[in-house]
Here is the input.
Amino acid sequence: MILKKAIAGIFFLTFLNGCVQNTALLGTVYTFGSSGNVYQTGLSYGSSKLVTNLTGKSPGENVKSLLMPNKEDTEFEKLVKKRITEARKKLNLSNQ
Here is the structure.
């Protein structure tokens, strides 16, 4: 069983490594698959591209930069960011 998984993993890594650039549409495909709504899918893709063109970063990178601590943060902002990271750690441990 382990040998089959190893061979399948090597196969996928070898032959599908060129597919990484096409994963940009993965989020919109998931939206379409879960909701079945073409308009919602178009809005999701369009808003993502708009944010990327305006800021130069993807929406995920923007959220990450908002949650990273800065020197000019207030004490309240530091406390909120600390609580968010602690909650994420607890959620990751409970999922395992």
Q: What stands out?
A: The radius of gyration is 19 Å. Helices lie at 2-15, 26-35, 38-55, 59-67, 75-95. The longest helix spans residues 75-95. The mean pLDDT is 76.
